[in-house]
Amino acid sequence: MNGRLLFAALLLAALAGPALATDCPALLQGELPKLRAKESIDLCERFAGKPLLIVNTASHCGFAPQFKGLEALYKRYRAQGLEVLGVPSNDFKQEAADSSETAKICYVNYGVTFTMTEPQKVTGDEAIPLFKDLAEQSSAPRWNFYKYVVDRQGKVVASFSSLTKPDSDSLRAALEQAIASKP
């Protein structure tokens, strides 16, 4: 009987693996290198089933002070499941050439505790898959600090230009809608 139970457990585990992979939305397929760390972020493992705010950032952009507001949003809503993902990019020629400088600006100058990646391409044909999917669901970033609110199913519920401040009522309303969505 023990052999049958072991076989059944192994069979269930084998069948559950592919089922879990299909539960991950296309938007979250893949990995990105974490800023100034040796590990990568498995987007599906880290963010699947969670409401998410994704922002393309740039350390030397005039909108960089928005890091403080993004951190405040993260602290305000993280107990409700919200995750924030910052993706630095030099697509608009305002990101530091050295990721250690990017990290210092984010972590030291602005006190960022939400997840940040190494700089990535976020526009055009060379955009990473995450941003290609965001662009297909909404629109490509037109500048730094473009914000995407994603629900628990991996669907963009709203996007906001760089001019939209993190404390805006419309951004908070979209985040609350994403938080309220069912996994």
From TrEMBL:
Signal peptide limits: 1-21
Family: Belongs to the glutathione peroxidase family.
GO biological process: cellular response to oxidative stress
Active-site residues annotated for this sequence: 61
Thioredoxin domain segment(s): 11-180
Stated name of the protein: Glutathione peroxidase
InterPro entries, A to Z: Glutathione_peroxidase, GPX_AS, Thioredoxin-like_sf, Thioredoxin_domain
SUPFAM superfamilies, per database record: Thioredoxin-like
PANTHER family per record: GLUTATHIONE PEROXIDASE (PTHR11592:SF44)
CDD domains given in the database record: GSH_Peroxidase
Keyword Cell membrane: no
Keywords: Oxidoreductase, Peroxidase, Signal
PROSITE patterns per UniProt: GLUTATHIONE_PEROXID_1, GLUTATHIONE_PEROXID_3, THIOREDOXIN_2
Keyword 4Fe-4S recorded: no
A molecular function (GO) term: peroxidase activity
